[in-house]
Amino acid sequence: MGNLLYIIAVILVIIWAISFFGGFVDSGIIHILIVIAVIAILLRVIRGAA
User: Which UniProt keywords apply (predicted)?
Assistant: First the structure.
């Protein structure tokens, strides 16, 4: 389950970076992607440390 969260987070960060630097920043959805990715990475770090 942890690996899946990490993979999803990486994919979301890549999508966010492509859309952010590609000039498609018209909607707030793009920034929600990065928040979800950060949360997924934090969950991975917290659960991995425990």
Answer: Membrane, Transmembrane, Transmembrane helix
